[in-house]
Amino acid sequence: MYSLCTGNSSVQSSLRALIRFFANKALPIFFWVTKNNKEYRLIPSKKNPETIVSLTSFPDRINKVWLVIEVLLRQTRKPDKIKLWLSKDQFSSIEVLPNRLLSLQKRGLEIELRKGNLRSHKKYFYALKEYPDAKLITVDDDIFYRTNMIEKLLLFAENYPKCIVANYVRKIKITDDELSPYNEWSFYTSAGEPNYLAFFGSGGGTLFQPQIFPRETLDKETFMQICSSADDVWLNLMTRINNFKVVKTDLETINLLPITGSLQNLTLSSVNLMGQNDTQIDAVRKFCIEKFNKDPMKIAQFISN
Questions:
Q1: Using one digit for the tens of pLDDT, what is the confidence trace for 27-61?
Q2: Contacting residues for 8 by C-beta, under 8 A, at least 6 apart
Q3: Which of 152, 88, 157, 76 is nearest to 118 (CA)?
Q4: What is the pTM (predicted TM-score) of this model?
Q5: What is the DSSP string of 66-81?
Q6: From CA 37, how far away is CA 105, in angstroms rounded?
Q7: Is 86 helix (H, G, I), strand (E, B) or coil?
Q8: Residue 154 and residue 161: Cα distance in Å, rounded?
Q9: Are the C-beta atoms of 248 and 167 separated by less than 8 Å?
Q10: Which residues have a Cβ under 8 Å from the Cβ of 140 and sit 6 or more positions away?
Q11: Residue 101 contacts residue 60 (beta carbons within 8 Å)
């Protein structure tokens, strides 16, 4: 459910457009009509949650983010908490948020406002700080996720406890022992094969085991200076400091079903089209070499370990 068909033909492209159009019309109605179903809520969470889904949003998307929460509340395996982190620079108080979003607090959503604006890094930053012993699942605020998305992440996490588990992954391309531009990286489709060449997208549904990040991951002054618009880049390179591989689930996510009707934020790929993604990868590499004496994108050094 909530996934587009795959293929490259014009017919399939048209079909995907139709599915996207009708899904964005029908699913909000379906969610609203069935919102009182007792199955579509979280059980009151434990004091020390085992699994947290964490996301962020911004003003141009805030009217639509309730749709993402609805999908998360309808998962075949539910997390202990769903946390939505927002900036006080953009939202002065909880009361200014849309009623449809606020109503989801009764069903388990927790909304947190924080000073400052860490942009997309809010997706993981506060959850890592406040729940260091929990499994952290990050998602984006503009996708109709499949209802078994969390179940797949948890299943693969059980089978690969020393890996980052991701639904949306690209394969790093190396040419003559040098890192190729991000636009040349292909989609990684090999499920269940942990690999150092796998580069996860944090918004497609990504699970991080507890205690896998170096403490420098929470150095907000640094990541906001050198990598402010690409949390994916920062997280990927930080996990490589501790030599963690990425494993892809068997969910088909090359064609995710987007939520339309709001101004689109800058994603990893769209930023890269303007040349910023490769620039930020280079900047984080330099930081890691200076800080850890280790190049997180020098693949040969991992393979030899």
A1: 999 999 999 999 999 987 667 899 999 999 999 99
A2: none
A3: 88
A4: 0.92
A5: HHHHHHHHT-SS--SE
A6: 15
A7: strand
A8: 10
A9: yes
A10: 55, 68, 123, 203, 204, 267
A11: no
**How far is it, in rounded angstroms, from Cα 204 to Cα 142?**
10
Rounded to whole angstroms, the Cα distance separating 178 from 174 reads 5
| Contact in structure between 207 and 137 (CB atoms under 8 Å) | yes
Cβ atoms of residues 71 and 99 within 8 Å? no
Cα separation, 69 vs 66, in Å, equals 5
CB 125 within 8 A of CB 202: no
- For residue 166, how many C-alpha atoms fall within 13 Å in the half-sphere facing its CB? 28
Helix, strand, or coil (residue 303): helix
Work out the angle between the directed axes of helices 276-292 and 231-241 (0-180°, nearest 10).
30
Sign, CA torsion 194/196/201/202: positive
In the chain, what is the straight-line distance between the N-terminal and C-terminal CA atoms, in Å? 40
Closest CA to 70 of 40, 49, 106, 111: 40
The one-letter amino acid at 162: K
Tell me the pLDDT tens digit for each residue of 237-283.
999 999 999 999 999 866 689 998 754 443 434 444 446 889 999 99
Q: Are 277 and 85 in contact (CB under 8 A)?
A: no
d(CA 276, CA 12): 31
